[in-house]
Design goal:
Length: about 200
């Protein structure tokens, strides 16, 4: 019953066990490594101390928007927050069923991580699957130094950067600096699929 309720609240969805407890430990570990109190993290993230405490204890599974705020306050990306850093290898295979995935059950907007979560690697590759007439909603600016490269695999995509709109078709590619408000919207029929490569200089 708990999993069914979580899906209705547009929370992080993951196929592994005890996602709440693992996420809570991850946030707490990152917070303590940076010598932040719960009060300070609450101040930096805009998430209440009470909610942060519940999340760290594994009692509450945050919505994606809350998790993004916490990740930004801790200086990491969302997938780094919900995943575990892996040992670097010369070859790493990521079968589809083992890829980290975040899906909003209210809209079926899905983000899937296609690259390993290596420690101190500032590069990630994601695939977004956006149903017809659905968008990401307004996304906050990334920290300075983040660059994004986008390639449309299928369908039409409307990208809005700091109020300016761009329309991309299948096969089109785009680069932009991530430190501006932005959003993605399916501008065609059927599911829109696109790849995003995120690179950080910091």
């Amino acid at each position: 019953m708990k999993d069914k309720k979580a899906r209705k609240k547009s929370t992080i969805v993951e196929k592994r066990d005890s996602v709440e407890q693992k996420l809570g430990r991850r946030i707490q570990d990152l917070r303590l490594k940076q010598r932040l109190t719960l009060e300070k993290l609450a101040e930096f993230s805009g998430v209440s101390r009470a909610m942060l405490s519940q999340i760290e204890r594994g009692e509450k599974n945050p919505t994606v928007s809350v998790a993004v705020k916490i990740a930004k306050a801790l200086g990491v990306n969302l997938f780094h927050l919900i995943g575990e850093s892996e040992e670097h290898r010369k070859v790493k295979i990521l079968p589809k069923e083992q890829q980290l995935s975040i899906k909003n059950p209210a809209t079926n907007f899905e983000q899937r991580l296609l690259s390993p979560t290596f420690e101190n690697r500032h590069l990630e590759i994601m695939r977004h699957l956006v149903p017809e007439k659905i968008g990401s909603g307004d996304l906050p600016p990334s920290h300075k130094g983040v660059e994004k490269y986008l390639i449309v695999e299928k369908g039409k995509l409307k990208v809005t950067l700091d109020g300016e709109t761009y329309l991309l078709a299948q096969g089109d590619a785009m680069y932009f600096e991530g430190n501006v408000p932005h959003r993605y919207e399916n501008a065609g029929r059927g599911v829109c699929s696109y790849l995003i490569v995120v690179s950080s200089k910091n």
